[in-house]
Amino acid sequence: MKSSIRKLRRRFHRRDTNKDGTSTETGDTATGVVELLSAGDQEEDQSAVDDGSSHQDGVNAVETKVDAQAQREVVSRLPQLATYDSQRPRPIDVCYSETCKAILDKIKAWAAKDGQPQIMWISGLAGTGKSTVAKTIATWAADEGILGGNYFFSRDMMELRKSSHVIPTIAYHLSEYDPSLTGCISKALVERNGHVLNQEIAEQFRRLIEEPLRRTYAPTITRKRTLLIIDGIDECDNPKDIETIIHCLSSLLSSPDVPNTHIRILFVSRPGRHIHDALYAHNQLLIRLSVEDFVKTSDIEDYLRNGFSKIGRRDWPSKDDFGALVESCGKLFIYASTVIGFIASGAALRTPEQSLQIFLNIKSNDALDDMPLKQLDDLYSHVLLEAIGAYARINSKGMVRFRKILGSIVLLRDHFGVSSLSKLIEEEEHQIWNMLNRLSSILIVPPERNPETPVRFLHPSLLDFLIDKTRCDERFFIDVSCMEVYLFQRCVDIIIKGLKGIVDEEFIPVMCYVCQYWGYHLEKVQDENAQMVMKLDEFVRYHLLKWFKFARVLLGSGRPLFRCMEVAQNWVSNYDIELLKILESTLRSFRVLEDGLWGDLQSTYDAARSKYGHEETRRGTCHPGTRVAVLEEIMDWATSESMGPKIFWLHGSALTGKSAVAMSIAEWADEKGILCGGFFFRDIIESSDLRLVVCSISHDLASFDIAMRGPVVEALERNEDLRSSEDLELQFNALIAKPLLLLKQDSCPILLIVDGLEWCEGATELLTLFFTHLSGPDTSHIRILITSRPTPNICNAFEEYKGLHKSVNLDEVSAMVVRQDIETYLHDRLAQIHETLSLSTPPDWLDHTNLDSLVNDSRNSFLRAEYALRFIGDSNVRNPVDQLRTWLAKQSRGESFENMYPHWVAEFGAPHIQVLDDNVDEQFNVHALREVDNRPSQLTTYDSHQPKTMHVDVSLETPPETLPSENDSLVNIPNLSSSILNIDNRDSHKKFGGFGVVRRAHLLGMKQVAVKTLQSRREGQYQQQITGYEKRVPRRFLHEVSVWCGLHHKNILEFLGLAESSKDGLPLSMVSPWIVNGNITEYIKLNPSTKRLPLILGVAEGVQFLHENGIVHGDIKAKHTHFRQS
């Protein structure tokens, strides 16, 4: 290893002599290459870098960058709103002016001085301002430079109720606060891709806090004061975990080996028994303060005066009324806050005097010492009665609705806006708004124009009040168990309904919630309920597999779903042993599948039908009444029990609707219960990895039927390396063919769908696997539908297996049939436009002449018809009649849609209509291509070092003499303009460099390619030097083409040719293969075991070739280095 590095140093620290006699020092480049070494190989390569401090510095610099990037990714998984200064939906204030001065002074003195107990517990009743005090102290500590870490729990946010991220968050704060801890904590955080986040709390504490403090302890060094604040520990959803956190953090302060006398820990909570017991186990370290002992009447007075000043009345309220109100507030700031909010929010309903009088009329007869929350209970009762009326009956329709809405807001694990809430509980939006707007003094109610903004409680004390029967009027009381039963049943009903057909985009938030949290509602049902057991039994036996398959796509992972199954398993263990066994077996197999199959979730049928994610994920079905003959033919083939071909190939050119047919068949087969799996290729390279394809289809099969899940799970357990095996046939046979062959359908055959096969680089190999393994005599129960364009490689593959498949060519469907389909589509959609826009429909709206013109204008393209409909029904214009007239008038002048409305196209995210021009010039300007100069250029090189191929983006400083001469065959450069398809012009998908921009596209009959164009801001500088005909091509472009096309080496990315397309806005551009695996930083992050030395040697080989040809680069770095499969 050491000798290899020395060899590299000798190779790069030399002076290169160019052909013109000039020389260039390349030592800087060597440093850049050596910097590719990072932490993963540090121990192995230590001796290799001991012989030079500059190299060690480079390694350290890159290691720091890699660790920082990995740490950022792990930290992004921590709750972002847990810190004191985060912008929460329910904000925490700091203490107003001089309020709470006594308690604040006492806490500050404790935190700053030596010789104090190291733990302080601030306790207080609901509404006494504990969190406000905690935030005020955190703000002060941050200003003083002693805030080491903080975590603020919140019961109304799911992520802030969990205990699992408290220790990692505190540890991360410590790593930023104390530089001596940074290395140890950061390393522990990023190891195994943040695995520590999933470990038990005690192990998190040991690795992230205890061990770093122990390893960096030095008796002779005094650490600076460090204050840790944890607020709202009573709002954690797991009391046992809070006890563990208290014991762990307290143990830091009693360690004989590492005293940690610099640490102070502040806990803030209500006075719960479990918290009291946990803290008093360390009473020798503890000091306790009760907020109520420090709240003065003057504090409440100051708070109220500030609130009334914002209402705008200086002479109001009177001294007597103000005094009475202060007395009613007692020591509860939340009481004062609610009064101010009620008066301010009720301005449209009553005068401020009337609103205040409501509170002055509240009389609490009980002594406050005996019932300290009585005054708050009376306050909430009066606000609620004002909202619904004093004479409302408990079982009236309005009160039932009232409790359902409030109960859902109380018990939902993730807050909803009104729009989603109405779908979940089946109540009209306007009914929910009417109720919420009357409760805006105790709820955080968003404006009605923001129906997706969540509704939240102003203070958690309201939640406590509503679920406590001893405190709350029975008309408002939320029976938690009964409400959880209702929410569980609603979740299951919505899931079952959502597993069928297309899921509308507006329903996705509700589907995400019910799929993830149905188990949480089941968990809170305390008593046996026969109806609940039956509901769960039905769901587990008939829908669990489909739920898991769909929900893992919807949520992006199956891991959040395990919690639901664990809860169901625990709950049902008391009632139904048979159901328990089913759940145990299913959960075990799901874990194996999740760990063993790494499929592409976005390319499944569930992703295609649920209308979420990226544009390329979504698929539409055929419009009702269109493509009838094709659909019927496929359906007859799929359900026929004859011994005919088992594979059906539906093909056609671009924009003929192949995917729409595939989706219609998939939806039909799904409803019939015969769709066992599928893969819907997308126009991104990641979806074409055949191992991903096999794993994705296998997961579908295992989720379709228990008879297929068994063989898949068995194969994965028997061979842990199966999913990453390079033997694709072994994978296919074990994970797809064998499970399918073992399943015997007694009735209708099962259907597998592969859509968009032309996007698959290994299309021929995949077809071979299907034909050789799944088209024999023992496959009578299997049907495979494949759609694609008729690219040469796919055509050849099907021709090879002629007689084993059936095919339909959509290009051969008669133009008259296509026209009739488009007319049906346009007629139906146009009839709905006015209704969609809530407009009255003119009597002559569907004029036959206009409809006929619109059909003609669509040119037998459904996509063009869709463009027309979107334009005509534009909700911003809301004038379909004028829009239709405008569309037809401008199109009749031959003006293209893309040129007319480019911004509109971008806004809708619609793909460009592609009409290939048969008159594209087949030869580029030879004189222009031969003209070169010595301006800097960009080049992409590759290293084919096994097992991967690498390329490096570099800048060239090449004198004219070293470029290919005029004798080189520039005239033979391929013109690929007519073969380039689907150029991706979205800014988010472009790659920008210093001189150029790279788009992704597809090359007909081949694969994805990169299309590189010089950035226009630079082109202008060079075009001014061009005269005559050659002005259309920048000199800098000619220089780069000349250099690139003349470099032929295994370690340099091949130059494929040139292309341009005015319709796609693509100027003359260079074409090369698209790189799959990202740059070296991204690749190593995903594959941390990758050895760095072979990568460096590979880069060196490519660089050496360039040097030998007099070409010197100057910008090698990790982010400019990429991989592709060799």
TrEMBL record:
**Composition bias type Polar residues, residue spans:** 20-29
Q: Does the keyword Zinc apply?
A: no
The Protein kinase domain, residue ranges: 984-1126
Q: Which InterPro entries match?
A: Kinase-like_dom_sf (IPR011009), NACHT_NTPase (IPR007111), NPHP3-like_N (IPR056884), P-loop_NTPase (IPR027417), Prot_kinase_dom (IPR000719), Ser-Thr/Tyr_kinase_cat_dom (IPR001245)
Pfam families (alphabetical)? NPHP3_N (PF24883), PK_Tyr_Ser-Thr (PF07714)
Basic residues bias spans: 1-16
Q: Name one GO molecular function term.
A: protein kinase activity
Keyword NADP listed? no
Which PROSITE patterns did the record assign?
Answer: NACHT (PS50837), PROTEIN_KINASE_DOM (PS50011)
**Alphabetical list of SUPFAM superfamilies matching this protein:** P-loop containing nucleoside triphosphate hydrolases, Protein kinase-like (PK-like)
Signal peptide start and end residues? none
Q: Please name the Gene3D superfamilies in this protein's record.
A: P-loop containing nucleotide triphosphate hydrolases (3.40.50.300), Transferase(Phosphotransferase) domain 1 (1.10.510.10)
Record keywords? Repeat
Enumerate the spans annotated as NACHT domain. 118-272
Tell me the segments the record calls region Disordered. Answer: 1-58
Give the record's family classification: Belongs to the protein kinase superfamily. TKL Ser/Thr protein kinase family. ROCO subfamily.
* The protein's name in its UniProt record: Protein kinase domain-containing protein
Organism annotation: Schizopora paradoxa
Where is the organism placed in the taxonomic lineage, from the top? Eukaryota, Fungi, Dikarya, Basidiomycota, Agaricomycotina
